[in-house]
Amino acid sequence: MFVAVAAACRPADESGAPGDSVPAARQELTVGALEDEFGLELNRPRLGMYPLNAGICEPLMKLGRGLQTEPWLATRSEYRGNNTYRLTLRRDVKFHDGSLFDARAAKYTLDHSVRVKTQYSYLSDQSVRVIDDSTIDVRPALPNLRLAEQLVHPSYGVIGPGSDPARRPVCTGPFRFVEYVPQSHITVARNNFYWGDKTRLERLTFRFFQDDNTRALALRSGEVDAIFDVNRGMIAGLEATPGVRIVKASPGAVIVMYIATRGAEPYLRMRDPAVRRAVALAIDRKVLVERVLEGHAAIVNTVNPPKVLGRYAARVTGISYDPAESRRVLDSAGWKLGAGPVRTKGGKALELVMIMQPGHVDRFIGEYVQAQLAAVGIKVTLDQLDPGAFSSRINSGAFDLDIEVPSQNDANPAFLLALRWYSKSHARGARFMLAGPLFDSLVTASITSESSDDAQRNAAEAMHVLVDEEVAAIPLAGVHRVYAMTDKVKGFDPHPSRTNQWWNTVWIAR
User: Model confidence over 268-315: pLDDT tens digits?
Assistant: First the structure.
């Protein structure tokens, strides 16, 4: 919980202070983004908000660079007991169409999140009550004292009452919507009536690219000014390119291997705890970080950045690399090696299917894991999918292993735990990855803890169960968000969470 008042301010930026260069006459920036995901059913009502945040909309609270909650359109949050938060709203804020932001608009936004089934904070259509023009009470349908920490998520960007965010979002952000062409680009322009510091950019366009090579070529040729989520294998080459620089955010994401502990038929192998532990034992994360990812990552034992667990992060120890123990575990569980390279049990081969988050996970990471598991007698088939097919497979439990790079998109220490492995999660794919009743009870305790310290402690205990005991997930590496941009791009201030990246301070030099 926070009780604070924030003033709008422009963060300092060492690489591009206004005196460094002369601003270009035209302040227009083009960014090479990943593949367009706004067409997915879940994302259609979140155009320009999530998973790509174009600065059109703003949440009630904001996620700071230390992954903490900061006041924003709500200047004050107070827990009043009975599972209820009172939010005091900023005055004199206008939507892009000139209408006034007030308590009714905040209620409309949170009610809309229920209508489009964001289903992230256990809100219902009865959760929000208007107290006066600048005050609302919010009471989730289920016990949830992490609400203030969750409302920083871009999915809760405030929208104008009656507007259609799936076609033309009308919000309060520093940029206003101009155009969206599916699979091509989304363009925004400066909001000259913004309540805070005005953007220096007049126009900002995100172009969608389906593969990393094309994005990198677009940067080198001058088609785009910047690209994000640079493929690790391309960092050295881009860094050596004249006029291009690499910018890294502090770690805000972890490469995580999700495990189908309750996969649908025929994806049943990972229901066996021995197989799950053997998989974890077989992966050398040190080599992955130092050689495969060339040092652009760190070994972590947690499924989200350790800092969100505070002093309790050390409770999660992870599974150490021990291929001999991996083989022993498999032997003891009846998975034996015969004449061939793949283990069998009861006439069935130990063969797994692995999928990877398209546009976020480099194929060589999957190939590395594939080779590591082959060394202990586990055959892995890699299925590369487009975003629609990937989403369908996750939501139907049609996989054994899944590698993704989830960001810490809010300040709740149980954020990812409650979203992906919790039996009360509304995420469609969660039921195929459940981590058990003890895990559930600890997540519930974290969500309902009144103090932040207790929330962190319970989240750490839940993660210990998830990673160390149930081995229902395997953290592979903590990663930096890596951006590449031309030297003319100034004032860029990278956020550890890509979905919370803002472009307010950026400007173009001549």
Answer: 999 999 999 999 999 999 999 999 998 889 999 999 999 999 999 999
- Dig out the tokens for 429 from the structure: 């794919």
| Residue 83 belongs to domain with CATH number | 3.40.190.10
pLDDT in tens, 219-238: 999 999 999 889 888 999 99
Is 426 buried (19+), middle (13-18) or exposed (0-12) by CB count in 10 A?
middle
Q: Are residues 165 and 264 in the same domain?
A: no
Query: What span, in angstroms and rounded, lies between the C-alpha atoms of 500 and 125?
Result: 26
The CATH number linked to 472 is 3.10.105.10
Q: How many distinct structural domains can be found in the chain?
A: 2
Domain assignment of residue 375, yes or no: yes
Distance in angstroms (rounded) separating the CA atoms of residues 135 and 285? 49
Cα distances (angstroms) measured from residue 176 to each of 1, 10, 169, 182, 188: 31, 19, 8, 18, 5
Joined together, the tokens standing for residue 175 give: 């940029």
* pTM assigned to the model: 0.87
DSSP notation for 222-265: TS-SEEES--GGGHHHHHTSTTEEEEEPPP-EEEEEEE-TTPPT
Q: Over pLDDT 90: what percentage of the chain?
A: 88
pLDDT, mean over the chain: 93
Q: Which of 122, 147, 171 is the last residue of a domain?
A: 171
Q: Are residues 263 and 159 in the same domain?
A: no
Evaluate whether 207 touches 52 at the Cβ level (below 8 Å): no
Distance separating the N- and C-terminal Cα atoms of the chain? 44
* 315 and 437 fall within a common domain: yes
Q: Domain for residue 290, yes or no?
A: yes
Return the C-alpha torsion angle 253, 452, 8, 503, nearest 10.
10
CB-based contact 384:348 (threshold 8 Å): no
Instruction: For Cα atoms 367, 434, 478, give the angle at the middle one, nearest 5 degrees.
Output: 45
Whether residue 11 is predicted with pLDDT greater than 50 in this model: the reply is no
Q: Quote the percentage of the chain above a pLDDT of 70.
A: 96
Domain endpoint, select from 118, 146, 171: 171
Burial class for 6, CB neighbours closer than 10 Å (0-12, 13-18, 19+): middle
- Confidence class of residue 491 from pLDDT cuts 50, 70 and 90? very high
Q: Give 451-455 contacts, CB < 8 A, sequence gap 24+.
A: 452/1, 453/310, 455/145, 455/146, 455/412, 455/413, 455/414
pLDDT digits (tens, 9 = 90+) for 46-66: 999 999 999 999 999 999 999
CB atoms within 10 A of CB 487: 13
Give me the pLDDT at residue 4, please.
42
Q: Which domain holds residue 367?
A: 253-479
Instruction: Place 344 in a pLDDT band, splitting at 50, 70 and 90.
Output: very high
Question: What is the maximum alpha-carbon separation in the chain?
Answer: 75
Cis amide linkage into residue 475, ω under 30° from 0: no
